[in-house]
Structures are given as C-alpha cells and as structure tokens.
Amino acid sequence: MASTARKGGVSLPDKRNPRGGAGAGAAGSGIVSRISESPIVARGKRAAGDAAFVTKKLLKSTGKAAWIAGTTFLVLVVPLIIEMDREQQLNELDLQQASLLGTPAVGQK
After folding, report:
1. Minimum mean pLDDT range among 4-8, 40-44, 54-58
2. Where does the pLDDT of residue 26 fall: very low under 50, low under 70, confident under 90, or very high at 90 and above?
3. Which of 23, 45, 74, 86 has a CA-to-CA distance to 63 between 20 and 30 Å?
4. Looking at residue 19, what DSSP letter applies?
5. Rounded Cα distance, 18 and 24, in Å
C-alpha cells in the first residue's frame, strides 16, 4: 500500500489509479485539464513570460545606467565639490587674516 520508506523521510501512499478513472476526482481533473489547455490560458502564460523577460532586461539595463552615472559622479563631480570647498575655505582665511591685520580685504573698498 505505501511506497518504500526512505531513511528520514515520510512515505506517501501509492496512487492506485493515476488516470483518474471513475469517481469524483475524474470530473475535477477533466475541467482543470480543459481550462489549463485552453488558448486563453496559453496566451496569458505567454504574456506573463514576455512581461517577465522585458522586466528583467529593463532592470538589467537600469542597473548598468545607474552604475555608469554613479561612477561618473564619483570621478568628475566629487573632486570638483572638494576643490570648491577648499577654495571657499582659503577665501575665508584670507578675509580673516585681512581683518586681523587691519588691511582692507581684496574686493572690499
């Protein structure tokens, strides 16, 4: 009745009639098989597969674009921001020294 048990596993009962035969199960599997083999379901599966493929490609290309934009920002923009900050600090230091020495600052009259 039960299939041979494997070590550490659970044994399940053998299927007596894999075709369905007579009984309540036959009508249910017939309807399910007719629905699953219908052209509408096949078209839906194909559409879902196509949508998944397009989504995968879109995410892959978006990731590549994000990588390119991120590395470009790090290479070009971050050093520019650092240099502008350094220049601003240098200007502030010059203004502070000029005010301490009592000389007019460059650009002030």
Report:
1. 4-8
2. very low
3. 45
4. T
5. 14
